[in-house]
Amino acid sequence: MNEFPRTTVGGVSVSRLIIGTNWFLGYSHTSKAKDNFIKSYQDRKRIAEIITTFFQYGVDTVMCPYSPLIADAVKDAQDRTGRKGILILTPLYDVMPNGSPFEPAEKVFDDCQKLGATFCFPHQAMTDVLIDRLHRNFRDLDKYTRMIRDRGMIPGLSTHMPESVQIADECGADVETYIQIYNAAGFLMQVEVDWIMRVIHQAKKPVITIKPLAAGRLMPVVGLGYVWNTIREQDMVTIGTTTPDEAREVIELSLDFIHHRLPDYELQETRSKSSIKSANKH
After folding, report:
1. Which pairing describes strands 154-155 and 236-239: parallel, antiparallel, or unpaired?
2. If we measure between CA atoms, which residue out of 134, 199, 147, 192 comes closest to residue 174?
3. Are 110 and 79 in contact (CB under 8 A)?
4. Which end of the chain is more exposed for a tag (fewer CB within 10 A), N or C?
5. pLDDT tens digits along 122-165
6. How does the average pLDDT of the chain come out, rounded?
7. How many CA atoms lie within 13 A of 171 on its CB side?
């Protein structure tokens, strides 16, 4: 079995494919009904089976919000494979001057440390509000990255704003990588895809791309083909899956694209394809 390629973030070796968790936790970006289905279907056992599949290929890096459920499933996968998982946590905490529904940053970072996080990237909802576009800097970001460092975790920048990567580089923000939405459909992206491609290639640190399939709006062969062929060797792709079969499919497709091979996999079938299928036999 091929071992998945790796890169380095903040001195830590991580797999270039990262296990996403929206399809474990019920964030479908589709509908409330789809969210409810995901939540009713996924449990610790099913999630652990998917993570185990990734671990077997050397994909050992997991991105998720603070979630004891995911942490427990990672432990199960570790026990089955003997491979240590690497946790990237993207927590929410209180950044508002007059308070918010979230807990104080100190407690949230303590909890992330106790859960075993190697990386702590405050969620986009926390970081993008700190961006000062006028003066090209971040308000208080250094305060939060210092808290993360003090707890032995590595800070990164989770963002949906393309200029935040540039501003972080310009002001020397203490982050080791950036999370950036990137997909061929432009889904949830604030500017056109080619602009984000340029931002990624000019970034001073490795970039973690997310939503390569536009939350299910792109076929895996299309979404992965685009992203893997337009990022740098140090950059990463995060993808969520619902079953072990889906995990294997996206891993093998990704390996094909990274090694510039035409994917040769079993296609899905419908009755309308019967004439194409019969012609291929001749």
Report:
1. unpaired
2. 147
3. no
4. C
5. 888 888 888 888 899 998 899 999 999 999 999 999 988 889 99
6. 93
7. 19
Tell me the C-alpha to C-alpha distance, in Å, between residue 133 and each of 89, 160, 254, 256: 26, 14, 36, 40
How many C-beta atoms surround the C-beta of residue 1 within 10 A?
A: 7
Give the model's pLDDT for residue 99.
67
Domain of 195, in residue numbers: 6-279
Judge whether residue 210 has pLDDT over 90: yes
Q: Extract the tokens encoding 212.
A: 């390569």
| Number of domains making up the chain | 1
The domain that holds 189 is classified in CATH as 3.20.20.100
- 182 inside domain: yes
| Residue 1 forms part of a structural domain | no
Confidence of residue 3 (pLDDT cuts 50, 70, 90): confident
- Residue 140 lies inside a defined structural domain of this protein: yes
**Token pair belonging to 85:** 């998982």
DSSP reduced 3-state for 80: helix
